[in-house]
Amino acid sequence: MALNVLRTLDIEAKHEKDFRRTILIVDDEPINLRILGNILVAEYDIAYAQTGEEAMEEIRNQKGFLSLVLLDLYMPKGNGFMVLDSIRQDESLSKIPIIVLTSDKSAEVDCLRRGAVDFLSKPYDNPEVIRARIARAIELSIDRNIIVETGVDVLTGLMTKEYFFQYCREYDKFHPEKEMDAIVLNVSKFHLINELYGRVFGDRILQGVADGVRSASRSCGGVACRYSGDCFYIYIEHQINYDFLTRMVQEKLFEISETNDIRVRVGVYSDIYRSSNLEQRFDRAMTACNSIGRSNAADMVALYDNHMHEKEIYEAKLLVDIDRAVSESQFNVVFQPKYDIRGDEPRLCSAEVLVRWKHPEYGFVRPDFFIPLFEENGRIKDLDRYVWHEAAKQVRRWKDMYGVSIPVSVNVSRVDIFDPDLLDYLKKTLDDNALAPDDLCLEITETAYTDSVTQIIEVVNNLRNAGFKVEMDDFGKGYSSLNMLTSLPIDALKLDMAFIKDIAENNKEMSMVEFILQIARFLGVPVIAEGVESSEQYLLLKKAGCDIIQGYYFSKPVSSSEFGRLIERNLLDEKEPEALEQVEASEQE
Question: Which residues, 6+ apart, have CB-to-CB distance to 509 below 8 Å?
């Protein structure tokens, strides 16, 4: 598109001279200067030089305006070869096209190697041919410069993704025998680097990564691009291992940050038979890259293999089947009881809603597999709304059956938070079941808060203003600072189960839990501990002042009917003290 714009400029505009090209003619023979000047002056502005030194002075003075140099080879005070070499060695001049004026055919190859784009033979007896070749040389130079400008990422100096893919396709076309690897590299938790240290430092990190990627790819005759954000693509001849790549990048990062905290992940796909197209190869390299845990510093490189391929097919099938699964009620909601442990005896107070999937072909699908899959592919919203709807219906049934309100907690994903219809849908779900906002608590993960703080806070404030209680789920799994925590709108903190697993009297894990409980008391919010599996954990948490717990110590996730029996038992436990008090009062009378 840019080329078409250049070719259709309004030459009849008021400032017509602004669109005229300038050509420098360099020749020590005045007659040659006059002949070429007369041929070109109607279409171009002309500058003249008669020695190599004069030519270089004119070129440097007018480098921003020159569209072409016509250069004689044999002159006093610096010949044409000297001018060609000087221009090629100066990056600010190297884009100016040079047409050599000579009758010496033996010099043509040498001139091309030094950067000349064409030749004009003496004598100049065909003006139409001269004008046509000059116009073509200028046009090709403009095209090339535009391609170079649009093909380079401004921040890193690497290729843009469009130019990169075009280059790789051309390389494959002319080197079909080469065994090539597609590589994806990205920076772990880069969004946190920007958030904690600022965008300027983040840009320096990206430039450092680019320098390492460039050095590594060039060392093996490969090419690289910045695909997006902190993601880089590399196309390189097949290597046995890629330790050299991670080493080069980490060395560059250490020069910038002087710390080993910033890590990269590398995914590699080798396709020696070219059985997949270029985009598919890089998609598979991305899959390998994403298979590396973001917090696992030990494994920095992953290779795409048959296991990953089978997993991709499995994931694709699950994504296709989600609509059918919702319509056929293949998803089943279960409820994990939560117990308030602040009194003398634990008391059933609420439940967390969880989802299970029994696939007609694959059987039971693990929720820790399909939920992240749906989140990554934007389908979690459909599942979440189904779960909210089913949970609300069940709370209504319990109210009708037992005359009590047992609130349940449902998950709200990052995708939901950015949905402008979130609040309206939640309100409609409550209205459809004649429920109040207190009946449906909303769990939002800590990592969601840290991803986009300003927008998350605005959404959560709107939810709380509408009467909903919001729990920060998986606290301790993300990276919210203490200062940030004081400004987040929440009604409860839910400890990640990793905190609970190894707690013991006076160990560091228990000290951390006690510290978090102190923070919660300062904020005035209750703490919910999940993953409690033993009496030892229960007693330690109760002694430390934890408010609510859930986990296998009390109950695994259960069906709605099983949870109904827990409600009945809870109601019976509450009535027994009242009955006992009535008996004692009657005996005293």
Answer: 499, 501, 502, 503
The residues that bridge with 364 in the sheet, in sequence order, are 358
Q: Taking the C-alpha atoms of 341, 347, 353 and 354 in order, what is their torsion angle to the nearest 10 degrees?
A: 70
Identify the H or E element spanning 229. Answer: none
Q: Rounded to whole angstroms, how far apart are CA atoms 230 and 286? A: 13
> Cα–Cα distance between 52 and 295 in angstroms, integer?
61
Is residue 484 very low, low, confident or very high in pLDDT (cuts 50, 70, 90)?
Answer: low
Helix (H/G/I), strand (E/B), else coil: 258? coil
Structure tokens at 196: 């904690």
Task: Find out whether 417 and 451 touch, Cβ atoms under 8 Å.
Answer: no
Work out the angle at residue 273's Cα, subtended by the Cα atoms of residues 267 and 278, and round it to the nearest 5 degrees.
55
pLDDT confidence of residue 18: 44
Residues 6 or more apart in contact with residue 575 via CB below 8 angstroms:
none
Listed in sequence order, the residues at least 6 apart from 46 whose beta carbon sits closer than 8 Å to its beta carbon are 22, 23, 24, 25, 37, 40
Sign of CA dihedral 185, 417, 550, 432: negative
Environment class of 360 (CB within 10 Å of its CB; exposed 0-12, middle 13-18, buried 19+): exposed
Which position has the higher pLDDT, 449 or 337? 337
**Among 206, 214, 197, residue whose Cα is nearest residue 230:** 206
Residues 6+ apart with CB under 8 A from 408: 335, 350, 351, 352, 353, 391, 394, 395, 439, 440, 441
Facing residues of 23 across strands? 46, 68
Q: Whole-angstrom Cα distance, residue 405 to residue 62? A: 83
3-state secondary structure of 409: strand
Decide if 474 contacts 494 (C-beta within 8 A): yes
Question: By mean pLDDT, which of 169-183, 322-336, 374-388, 437-451 is the weakest?
Answer: 437-451
- Which domains are delineated in the chain? 2-150 (3.40.50.2300), 161-304 (3.30.70.270), 330-566 (3.20.20.450)
Cα separation, 72 vs 26, whole angstroms: 6
Instruction: Please tell me the distance from the alpha carbon of residue 108 to that of residue 113, in angstroms, as a whole number.
Output: 9
Q: What's the pLDDT at 482?
A: 58
Which pTM does this prediction carry?
A: 0.58
Tokens of 166: 């075009």
Alpha-carbon dihedral angle through residues 90, 95, 100, 106, given to the nearest 10 degrees: 70
CA angle 87–91–97, rounded 5-degree value = 50
3-state secondary structure 151-196: CECCCCCCECHHHHHHHHHHHHHHCCCCCEEEEEEEECCHHHHHHH
Summarised one tens digit per residue, pLDDT across range 502-559 is: 888 888 889 988 988 998 898 899 999 999 999 999 999 999 999 999 999 999 999 9
